[in-house]
Amino acid sequence: MATNGRTVTVFGGTGFLGRRIVQHLRDRGFPVRIASRHPARGRSQFGPHDSQLVFVQADIHDERSVANALAGSYAAVNAVSLYVEHWRETFHSVHVESAQRVAAQAHRAGVKRLVHLSGIGADAASQSRYIRARGEGELVVRATFAGAHIIRPAVMFGPDDAFLTTILNLLRRLPIYPMFGRGSMKLQPAYVEDVAEATVRIIQRAETQPTISECGGPRVYSYEELVRIVAHQAGLAPILVPIPLAVWHALAWASEIFPDPILTRNQVELMQIDTVSSPGLIELGISPQPVEAILQKMLSKCG
Fold this sequence. Notes:
Layout: E1 8-11, H1 18-27, E2 32-36, H2 39-46, E3 53-57, H3 63-70, E4 75-78, H4 91-108, E5 113-117, H5 129-144, E6 149-153, E7 156-157, H6 164-173, E8 176-180, E9 186-187, E10 190-191, H7 192-204, E11 212-215, E12 221-222, H8 223-233, E13 239-243, H9 245-255, H10 265-270, H11 280-283, H12 291-302
Parallel strand pairs: 1-2, 1-4, 2-3, 4-5, 5-6, 6-11, 7-10, 8-13
Antiparallel strand pairs: 9-12
Protein name: NAD(P)H-binding protein
Pfam families: Epimerase
Domain NAD-dependent epimerase/dehydratase: 8-208
């Protein structure tokens, strides 16, 4: 599909996934409007002089702000995510209320394509507040914007991520690596660039029927297996020690007393759930990149 000057507004366009989506859209020739509370952050990431990019101030909690950001847009992407709650920034306020607000204003503005980024395993009936909010968010988005496309990424990895990088940093600092339980939970990590590409392909394709695309990598790992792969490629030989999940819950509860907890109960809950996807990337014509290939590139850059 030719872009024909069709503007795409991206909420969360300065985040880990969002800025990759912006880059892929820019590479396709789309004018991109990056909507965020701190436009200066976007200018520092992308540079202030790119004529394809427009930086606008927007607060997803404010209806008028969202409406202004969407005015005249052909498509919209909601890539806003929250993993640690802070004051009014709760899972429900971000993943449900604000998701509905973006969908409602996109519908009102005549937006033709809405892509909503959710998460693998999203379930409105889940006991996990995070997973439940993701599931409820999907429901309200599709009820509000009937043609919305949902993308459910598995845990994502890539340079400057919060996943493989965290594992690697811990392995380098700790000769004894504490695992979540016995490390048996299943993961199917997705390369962040693949998920960004999937988003753009959904915007570009001629088919308009709403879809739910689950995006995972080419291989399923146990958590322990993934830690061992990271350690091996980094030339490390740690001792892996299983730590009961009850201990992790207690540590998370204690950590949450502080303003910026290093561990939350939500994160511990997520590490108890298998996150395996259907072949959404392949269905979009994308050959997903494996952890091993990208990890090697990450290691060569960081030394």
